[in-house]
Amino acid sequence: MSSAALYNDQTGVETAVDAGQESTPSTSNNSGAAFGLFSADFKKNEDLKEMLESNKESPKLEAMKRIVGLIAKGKNASELFPAVVKNVASKNIELKKLVYVYLVRYAEEQQDLALLSISTFQRALKDPNQFIRASALRVLSSIRVPIIVPIMMLAIKEAASDLSPYVRKTSAHAIQKLFSLDPDQKEQLIEVIEKLLKDKSTLVAGSVVMAFEEVCPDRIDLIHKNYRKLCNLLVDVEEWGQVVIISMLTRYARTQFTSPWKGDALDENSEKAFYESDAERNQAETNTYIMDPDHRLLLRNTKPLLQSRNTAVVMSVGQLYWHLAPKHEVSLVTKSLVRLLRSHREVQFIVLQNIATMSIQRKGMFEPYMKSFYVRSTDPTHIKTLKLEILTNLANEANISTILREFQTYVKSQDKAFAAATIQAIGRCATNISEVADTCLNGLVLLLSNRDETVVAESVVVIKKLLQTQPSEHSEIIKHMAKLFDNITVPMARASILWLMGEYCEKVPKIAPDVLRKMAKSFTAEEDIVKLQIVNLAAKLYLTNSKQTKLLTQYILNLGKYDQNYDIRDRTRFIRQLIVPSEKSSALNKYARRILLAAKPAPVLESAFKDRERFQLGTLSHSLNTKAAGYQELSDWPSVAPDTAVRNVEIIEPVNEIVPKAGKSKHLKSDKFYSDEEEEKEERSDSSSSEDGSSSSSSSSEESEDESQEESSKHSSASENTSSESEQNSSDSESDSKQKKTKKTQKKKKAKTAAAQSDSDENGNGVEASSSSMESSSASETDSDSDTDEDMKPAQNNIREKSKLQVKPKKEVSLLDLDDFSQTSTNAPKPSVVSHSLLSDLEGLSLSNISSAMQVTTSTFSQVKDYDLLHHMSGKGLAAKYHFPRQPCLYQPCMVTVQLVLSNTSDHSLEEIHIGERSPASLNIHCFNTIERLEPGASVTVSMGIDFSDSTQAANFQLCTKTDQFNVSIQPAVGELLMPSTMTEEDFCKEQSKLLGMNETSATITVPTANISRLAINKEILSVANVGAVPSNQSDVHRFAGKAVSSGSLVLVSLSLQQSPTALLTVNTEKSVMASMLLRVLTQALTAA
Amino acid sequence: MVPLPPVVAAGRGRRVNMDLSRPNLQLSVEGARTGPQRNWGEAGSEEDFKVKNETKRREPPSPSSTMIHSLFLINASGDIFLEKHWKSVVSRSVCDYFFEAQERASEPENVPPVIPTPHHYLISVLRHRIYFVAVIQSEVPPLFVIEFLHRVVDTFQDYFGVCTEAAIKDNVVVVYELLEEMLDNGFPLATESNILKELIKPPTILRTMVNTITGSTNVGEQLPTGQLSVVPWRRTGVKYTNNEAYFDVVEEIDAIIDKSGSTITAEIQGVVDACVKLTGMPDLTLSFMNPRLLDDVSFHPCVRFKRWEAERILSFIPPDGNFRLLSYHVSSQNLVAIPVYVKHNITFREGSSQGRFDMTLGPKQTMGKAVEAVLVSSQLPRGVLNVNLNPSQGTYTFDPVTKLLSWDVGKINPQKLPNLKGSMSLQAGASKPDENPTFNIQFKIQQMAISGLKVNRLDMYGEKYKPFKGIKYMTKAGKFQVRT
């Protein structure tokens, strides 16, 4: 037992070391020195026991640390159990933790003693500190002692309704532990899971789905109600939870939605065509297949996760798209998957495996990234072969020459296993792409003269296979090989050549017998496999050309008969009986030719990853290519989608999340179920979708049944009411009861609404809804973004309730905007006082976006200049004007708000008006949301934010409609790059005194007497610059203060009237360019009579 | 421990045979396996038996889908020096399968990351010459485990400065505490370094001393507040006297240059690493002059994705300390400037036992910046016995066993280009190698991001003080290969 002895030796040393350490603080063991000599395990444990029983903390801690060390090394420390377990109630938190570690490790073995600790945990479960509660539950559930199952069950149930999400998370973890300890508790545990699934904390979501996956992965019905919530929360869940949720949702979606690939069925075969006609396909598809909005929701909400830093998350989104997305959308994930190849070796390995499987079915997806799969000499072999595999899969007529050139380098690699794999790959390219088959063959033939025998052998083998697939016209190569034969020493290669000779001896009738003659000479010196093939060749030649080779064959058979190898002797005997006619073997003899020269099927050269597609991508099973324990098959798409209403309950009742339990009435209200934000989010998305629903269903009302039409209008009106909060509750219950009454008709109608919705989704309207939902769930400050897209619109009439809660005016604004929108009859904007009041309203609401330090006032100036952005002649009917409303931009403080008035002067409606390319590329624009449709004669006002970076350089961008793009540019006047700021006169003077010298520009001007009054001066200055007047008691000095929008640097303007017509105009700012420009425009404005 | 005692090796062989012949009797085989072959002390073996019996008694009908069952740390010489189990103990004999795979692999990197065994699956990563082997019992996304293991390594590195066997052994208690927090029942719990640091304080010499004297602990008493907040990555109550935020834009060029000097493939991968030491809850925005350059990005979870989508601005509440804010890929449309070129002439003459070696490096497209820290390495063909070279600058080494040539060039002086010239002696009688060696080149260029990416500005909201901001650019060679 050498290892044991050795081991003990080592322990001896260790103990000595340990003993040395111990002598430091408190333990007074004078026997310490003796340990080293005796070095028995139990002795050491005695010492530990002593330390554990000490009444001071530090020796205990020291002892526990050493015990943990023992556990870590895999040594046994179970004898100390009684001593350790006593310390479970210790006050010292580190000691306690270490005791926990110990308990979890050994409790299973010492069940009786472990029970001693239970009461401590039970007490800790009631602790006011959530951390202690959670960790008590963690340990309690980790002690795998069957007797405490009821206690655990109770603890889990309690923790599942704990106030702290952290404790709830722990309880979700505990569910799995209890389940593996006692599967009989399944039913009860499912109840807890059901409860926790409803939890809306992102902390809990991942863990509970994990528990769900383990305990009851087949109870898909539990997910229905939570599906949308999970989709929406997904971005905010921690990364590990995301992986679990995504893979669960993949399975879910495959059971609940119909296949988005139906329309693509034809294209499966001809991928090439599919790519070229992507756009048309898109349209064709919307005609035939309509995606369930929930399906779309999942795809949309997982997409941002492709940007995750966690490779597992990216991969799981990748597989989700692969398994769920319409074919033309799958390529969205390509880039991110390729990015993962930069990661660690192991990550590369897994990702490459998945890409290999994907690239078999969808070459086009990875073709643009072909170069990312080029092999580097430093890659480990398994990575190299995977890359090779992918390159081979990607090969097509267009890129084959590049790939083959690359392969040439690989063939020369010093890594011979890899070189051999490359030759195989070349063979595959040759069979797949007939154009290059000859080139490949010739290349391979050249390799026959390679020095390395693996390379030669591999090439011969591959050539053999290639010739087998296309035996015609290749006698040349066979001849060539015959010529090379003398130089080839690798037995395998020689054998292969001989086999080829025999197989195609009729094609080389002159050479084959000659080869046989040579072989007969060297027979005895050959390797066994070669000898076998010589016998083979002889037999075949005998059958085809017995005249020339009869004697040779007999000679070879005789040699073989006395060979040392029994295989060869057997084979010889067999062949002789088969081919040489004699009186005994006549029956077989007749068939000899058919036996030996039967047409052999060509070997198939195909990817090793061909059969991996049966496994879900990204799984362990896929990686191993065998079914791993616990692998769950991805079900096929259902042919008919199951009832979508199970999820859609919320759509009809946006505010309430209803929890229909058996026996409970649907009327149960749970207003507080969602936080306000969420509520709002849902409402908004609903209102927009139902809006769309109503419009589209009314347009298509002719075809629809009367009943459903009525219902749909009712439905839409109901949801409109819902969102106008004054009647919220009543309308809610109203819609509720309606819903109950007409439940059946509704179900029928459901498909229709869904259709309408998905329509809107397709067009991008849905994107808005999702974006708003994402924002509102992430942080409240970004919240304002989405609303403000729209609240700049002239929805003046509706701004009444200034005193409302924050959410409410917002909702109203967006809703009414939508109203405006559907009517599309907005007049030219009237940016008057009212809009300012709206603005100031909003300013108060969304303080978060404007830094509080910056006190910006809205100017009282109300006269606005319109500028032409796009003339209707050049815009094919689309006309655009813009003006600067001089409101602080709510998207970003450094942006200037610009309002665009888009009007359609053509006779057809314009669709999908949005902002396209911008230049310079770095230009920072906050675009308005895409306008779906602009009817002829209608106009709409949208606002956008542009960061001009405090320069008057024009912002160039494209204004796009569905069909056209127009290059437009906005050049701001220098005064528009400012925003007014309030200041006292004192402050003004102080700031001004800081901005002297270089920062001061001034000019003496002559002001017409008509303009000398304060009012007139204010008016003139404010007309060209967006600054704020500083109240002053000096009548002859006028001061204005503003800030540059982007940089925030102060701009101070002062005008001191000296002697009546002359005045001194001074601009103080750090921005000298701006100063001089400002000075010029101000001078112009003031001097103009 | 010295390399595996012969008994163990023999035992391993025997087990494999038994497995093959009696695949259904795995349990008894396992029992036999644990006994004599890997004997970890008398007491240990006894306990192992007990555990075996335990599992035999309650072999679950379907294996539980606990993600990560156990973790073994194995050093380069094949010793298991740490083990941690999150559920029932898995005997370390399961690692024998790993050792087998290790033996089969020619290089340490060639060990397959996923190894199936009859009852478990082993997923391993190799970093710092330590194998981290996770034992899995059932279906789980392999990347999930791999990513987690890498996160574990990163955490160790973060805590101990290095992640070596010695460091882990020295800090075994902290390691254990960390592993305990990072994984609950095999499912990741807290992997964010900021949270972990609140739970378990990283060991420092000072703290160890204080702890020894006062008996205070390394373990935090409170639930890390971050865990519950909307910004789980940031510690609360951060205070600094000097408020600083540093950003390093580091770009790596991956390229393959072919024999004639033309670029076969080249791409730029970049990262923005940050070191942010700011008091309170700062809200930062970082904008680029040319964000369009960034093609494919991945973010630290703190970055607000919506904001990036809409405005191409990075807006985030940073974690405390060092973190990777963003990694990106520069879109392939942009032509990549290759900063160095290599002129080479390496020939082996047929029949002669000499080869000629001549190689010159030069800068190209560096925008006037110096190319520094240049290191050329190459695996010469096996036939090369020795080299006799003469560098015009720097030093070179050649290892006749591994045939690894490396030339530490240092800085490239454009006036006097570095050159390495001389002869190689080949094995007498051996035929000429059919491939010329590939050169791997490393270099650094300070003060430049080769893609031209520029940070425009960094703003801070939410806090009153004025932080010190710094930005540094650097270009490095990634996988930069020159084929000859």
TrEMBL record, chain A:
Residues 1-13, 21-32 have a biased composition (Polar residues). It holds the Pfam family AP3B1_C_2. Residues 1-32, 663-809 are annotated as: Disordered. Residues 977-1087 form the Beta-adaptin appendage C-terminal subdomain domain. Its main location: membrane. The keyword Transport applies. SMART domains: AP3B1_C, B2-adapt-app_C. SUPFAM superfamilies: ARM repeat (SSF48371). It comes from the Eukaryota. GO terms for biological process: intracellular protein transport; vesicle-mediated transport. GO terms for cellular component: AP-3 adaptor complex; clathrin adaptor complex; clathrin-coated vesicle membrane; Golgi apparatus. Keywords: Cytoplasmic vesicle, Golgi apparatus, Membrane, Phosphoprotein, Protein transport, Transport. Residues 799-809 have a biased composition (Basic and acidic residues). Transmembrane segments: none annotated. It is a peripheral membrane protein. The keyword Protein biosynthesis does not apply. Residues 808-953 form the AP-3 complex subunit beta C-terminal domain. Residues 740-752 have a biased composition (Basic residues). It is found in: Cytoplasmic vesicle, Clathrin-coated vesicle membrane; Golgi apparatus. Residues 687-701, 715-732, 768-781 have a biased composition (Low complexity). Subunit of non-clathrin- and clathrin-associated adaptor protein complex 3 (AP-3) that plays a role in protein sorting in the late-Golgi/trans-Golgi network (TGN) and/or endosomes. The AP complexes mediate both the recruitment of clathrin to membranes and the recognition of sorting signals within the cytosolic tails of transmembrane cargo molecules. AP-3 appears to be involved in the sorting of a subset of transmembrane proteins targeted to lysosomes and lysosome-related organelles. Belongs to the adaptor complexes large subunit family. This is AP-3 complex subunit beta. It comes from Knipowitschia caucasica (Caucasian dwarf goby).
UniProtKB/TrEMBL annotation, chain B:
SUPFAM superfamilies: Second domain of Mu2 adaptin subunit (ap50) of ap2 adaptor, SNARE-like. GO terms for biological process: intracellular protein transport; vesicle-mediated transport. The keyword RNA-binding does not apply. Residues 47-60 have a biased composition (Basic and acidic residues). InterPro entries: Adaptor_comp_med_subunit, AP2_Mu_C_sf, AP_mu_sigma_su, Clathrin_mu, Clathrin_mu_CS, Longin-like_dom_sf, MHD. Residues 19-64 are annotated as: Disordered. PANTHER family: AP COMPLEX SUBUNIT MU. Belongs to the adaptor complexes medium subunit family. This is MHD domain-containing protein. The lineage of its organism: Eukaryota, Metazoa, Chordata, Craniata, Vertebrata.
